[in-house]
Amino acid sequence: MAQSNVYSLNVVGYVNVTYGTGFTLVSTPLNNANNAVSNLLANVPLGSTVYKFAGGNFVLNNLDEDGAGWQNPTDDLSPGTGYFVRNVSGTPYTNTYVGEVLKGNLTVAVGPGFSLVGSKVPQAAKSQVLGVNPGLGDSIYRFAGGNFVIYNFDEDGAGWGGGPPEPGLTEGPDIAVAEGFFFRNVSILNNATFTRNFTIP
C-alpha cells in the first residue's frame, strides 16, 4: 500500500565553479551518478588538463585540442578528490557541477606526506568544521593567485598558524565551496582520515 507521507531526504542541486586562466585547484562539490571527468567536465575548453596527485606525483589527463575527447575519459573525480584544472583558453570558464549533496558519515582518506583532497559537501567553512583532523606538525596548502598559502598545525600545541590572518583560525583556515587543497600529514597522531557527520535538517 502506497503511503503519501514518505519523503525523500535527497537534496540535489548545482554549483558553478569558475576556472580562471592557468591553474585552479578544485574539488567536486556534489555527487553525480557519473563522476567521470568526461561527464563532470564535458564542456571545458579544448586543451584543458586535469592534474591529480598520487604516490607523490601528478597524473595528467588532457582534453584533446582536436576534439578527440579526454585522454582518460573514465578518470574518477568523486567528491573528496582534489585536482587542478589548467585552462589554456585565455578566458575564464565557468563549469556547472550537478548532483546530490552527500550526507551521513563521510570520510576522506589521507596517506603519509601530501594528499590532494577536498570537502565532500558543498559548504564554505573552517577546515576542522569540514572534518579535517590534524596532528601536530601537519599542514594545509591552499592555492591562490598562482601561489600556495601554507597553514601549519603548530608542533608546540599552539594551534593553527601561518598564512594571512583569519578570524577563528583556531579551527583551521577558511575553505571555499568546491576548493581543493593539499594536506601534508607528518604526524603519527593523525588517524589518516577526515571524518564528517553531515546531516540535512
Task: Explain the overall architecture.
The protein is built from 1 helix and 15 strands; from the N terminus they run E-E-H-E-E-E-E-E-E-E-E-E-E-E-E-E. It has 201 residues and is an all-beta fold. It has 2 domains: 85 residues; 98 residues, no CATH class. A hairpin with a 2-residue loop joins strand 3 and strand 4. The longest helix is centred in the first third of the chain and has 4 residues. The chain is globular. 32% of the residues are buried.
Element layout with pairings:
Elements: E1 12-19, E2 22-27, H1 37-40, E3 49-54, E4 57-62, E5 82-87, E6 93-100, E7 104-109, E8 113-118, E9 125-126, E10 139-144, E11 147-153, E12 160-161, E13 174-175, E14 180-185, E15 193-198
Antiparallel strand pairs: 1-6, 2-5, 3-4, 3-5, 7-15, 8-14, 9-13, 10-11, 10-14, 11-12
Kindly list the characteristics that best describe this protein.
201 residues; mainly beta; 5-stranded antiparallel β-sheet; 4-stranded antiparallel β-sheet; 1 helix; 2% helix; disordered N terminus
Short description:
This protein has 201 residues and is mostly beta strands.
